Amino acid sequence: MHICMNWQAVSFDWNQARAFLATAEEGSLSAAAKALGLTQPTLSRQVAGLEKDLGVTLFERIGRSLALTQTGIDLLDHFRSMGDAAGRISLTASGKSQAIEGRVSISATDLMATFHLPAIVKKLRALAPGVEIEINASNDLRNLTRREADIAIRHVRPEQPELIAKLVAEPRAYLYAATDYLDRVGRPKTPDDLCNYDFIGIDPGFDRVIVELNALGISITQRNVRAASASGTVIFELARQGLGVTILPEDLATMTPGLEVVLPTLPAIHFPVWLVTHRELHNSRRIRLVYDLLADELGQ
Fold this sequence. Notes:
This protein has helices at 14-26, 29-36, 40-54, 70-94, 96-99, 110-115, 117-127, 142-145, 179-185, 206-215, 232-240, 250-254, 285-299; strands at residues 59-62, 65-68, 102-108, 131-137, 151-154, 163-169, 172-178, 199-202, 225-229, 246-249, 259-261, 269-270, 273-278. By secondary structure, it is an alpha/beta fold. The strands form four sheets. A five-stranded mixed beta sheet has the order 4-3-5-13-6. Strands 7, 10, 11 and 12 form a four-stranded antiparallel beta sheet that branches. A two-stranded antiparallel sheet has the order 1-2.
């Protein structure tokens, strides 16, 4: 579908955006000017021009340092996306994406690795055929800190300071069960009805999920959990086989015949998708290419 662009609403140019992004990333006007090969007065004028064109203040001076204002923080991710897109345009136009070679290892949950990554890897193959992708289906963040993966896709933001993380999506999930299971036990009419239903749990960590479900008025306990697994694909298959109620991503469940939402009136459960990598690896051309493509595709 073609989206009409309001060209007159774009009141700044790329040089201004690049100047802001470099200053925010490098931490100072002098470091940003050096990174861009500009004089500091030129860079300063570009940042000031962007602030004037947008009608906002992006930086404030604290002593000799610059700090992003809240507006600058709010806009930073948008400008990062512009920078990523500009980089990919340059790579594609020059044919350099074809010349990028080497292996990139991606660690992802098994559901993500099975149902989402293959289509993204297919697009990557067309963009950069010299890049080799290794997919590790794992829910463990330690494989990133042990340098067993270059990029990880996780549902929890990492706390390790040596890692950088970007929130790329917050898809919806709901309670699902097999139609034949609900035909057999009946369809609940209220959240409280679910206290008598079997649940399929995530092992470990379902205790936290029970707390969240209790907050929605679903009065279940660990006794309701009649089957559990650490594997998302196993949980998905247990639900498909009619062994109880569980939480599944909406996009996966809706494309699977034989599954239906339990209590459609319940609010959606949003789960974050974080893209994680090492700070120094983020500067690798091949890892940056894969990282940016993952961010774009998973963000959709």
